[in-house]
Amino acid sequence: MKEGRSDFRIFQHTFFRMNKLTTLFLGTVLSSSMLPGWTAAPPKPYGAIPTPAQINWQRMEFYGFIHFGLNTFTGREWGYGDEDPKIFNPTDFNASDIVSTFKKGGMKGMIYTAKHHDGFCLWPSAYTEHSVKNSPWKNGQGDVVREVSDACRRGGIKFGVYLSPWDRHDARYGQGKPYDDYFVSQLTELATNYGDIFCFWFDGACGEGKNGKKQIYDWERYYAVLRKLQPNAVLNVCGPDVRWCGNEAGHCRKAEWSVVPAELRDAERTASKSQQTDDGEFSRKIDSQDEDIGSRAVIRNARELVWYPSEVDTSIRTGWFYHPEEDTDVRTADELLDIYLDAVGANASLLLNIPPDTHGRIAAPDCASLAEMGDKIRQIFASNVTEKAKITADSAIAQHPITQAVDGMANTYWQAAYGQESDTITLKFPKPQKVSCVVLGEHLPTGQRIESGEIWADGSKASEFTVVGHKRICRFAPVDVLTLTIKITASRTEPTLRLLEVYQ
To answer: Where are the alpha helices (DSSP H) in 274-407?
Structure first.
């Protein structure tokens, strides 16, 4: 936004509208090539910016969810907490096979449900008897969390944990500090005994416990423990780092801003909307709550702006746990592909649930859909043709030319000239080139800036886009082009691009 520019920014704005000689001179100075030892200051961040952990998380883009526990054997979605641990006895659990299945789908990590609402712990917690240590699986000597975390590391994907704060088994639930002490003890076990964890996922569901009471969660205490023990982890969904998109259908907003009013970090907002029902209806309901959460009109009067990016979560099945009757209701590869492209391609990350069956295996229909989806993703992004084109931009600052948007480096980027809040990038091909997809990504450490834009192919509009952020995937009907034009029509300050890819 133009309000509040410093005098120096206004000075720059004026000079870049002078004659070409003056502009060239100033660009030379800014590139620090005019005087020995003279270094230009890098562009300053604009607005709220992400932490390194948030950037690393968003670069993952796509990771999987595992719901596996007592509900797998009872056929429920929400357990009551009175289930007998002896029913947990998978006959063929193989964490390495699950990791392999996830990798075939293109997933970069796994969030494992270490404890769901029934309070049953999939690791031998020292703080409860309601765990795998009292199950017949491996004669009570097993640790599912250990096997999964080790398999993730062997397989080269990241490991995360979902620990539900709602515990329908433990008698301390609803008693305040006694339950918080218990929950923190379990968080500490997970955060200290299973290596690096990229994410702690909370959900925020808050129902009644055995005593008919609800717990007021001490979120700040939970966060403080994890910041100390796992400083590189993001705290998701009722955490301060990543927000829930607002539905469980795999749908996100047209404009999914990462910079939003701080009020959206209110955990109770998520808790009141999350996991509404276990009958399958909510899991397919497309409702993102407030559609506009980050426009200029929304943020104008915000007391504080924060970097709070979106995660889209959904299940490959109607339910979150495995139910054999859903074997014929598994999302197809094409449906999963659309969800992926719409979520990852709209500045969100995708968390896709793949639940193991009672044997501890991913069912055949799920494996097939996920593998086919992964093949389709790899096929779409197999041929980046930007290297075939001569690329120019209407403007740039000297130390960040347009070539830095296509060099494949994560930390280099193009920035428009100071004062420019719109710009045009042109790719000219030596001969007609068939294209159907343009991928854009901003340089997040300097803020989210771009508000809207258009893709033009040989003078005809092929696509429009709204916010970019980490990644915007613009798809359109295949077309043969000589000249492809990317018009950034609105930006909150000078736009940046660290990523510009064009695919056939």
So the answer is: 296-299, 333-344, 364-380
Q: Where are the alpha helices (DSSP H) in 156-278?
A: 177-193, 219-229, 267-273
The string over 43-68, giving b where at least 16 C-beta atoms fall within 10 Å of a residue's C-beta and e elsewhere, is beebbbbbeebbbebbebbbbbbbbb
Q: Return all residues near 142 (Cβ < 8 A) that are at least 6 apart.
A: 124, 132, 135
- How does pLDDT run across 43-87, given as a tens digit for each residue? 789 989 999 999 999 999 999 999 999 999 999 999 999 999 999
The third-level CATH classification (topology) of the domain covering 384-503 is Jelly Rolls (2.60.120)
C-alpha–C-alpha distance, residues 320 and 333, integer Å: 18
Domain boundaries, the chain: 52-380, 384-503
- As separate numbers, helices (DSSP H) first and strands (DSSP E) second, the chain gives 12, 18
User: What is the Cα–Cα distance from 336 to 372, expressed in whole angstroms?
Assistant: 9
The Cα angle at residue 482 between residues 405 and 495, in degrees rounded to 5: 30
Place of tokens 């030596």: 430
3-state secondary structure string across 101-132: HHHHCCCCEEEEEEECCCCCECCCCCCCCCEH
d(Cα 465, Cα 500) in Å, to the nearest integer?
14
Alpha carbon separation from 379 to 101, 339, 400, 503 (Å, rounded): 18, 16, 31, 10
Question: Residue 486 CB: number of other CB atoms within 10 A?
Answer: 24
Q: At 56, which helix (H) or strand (E)?
A: helix 52-60
The answer to whether residues 499 and 471 touch, using CB atoms and an 8 Å cutoff, is yes
pTM of the predicted protein model: 0.87
> What CATH superfamily classification does 52-380 receive?
Glycosidases (3.20.20.80)
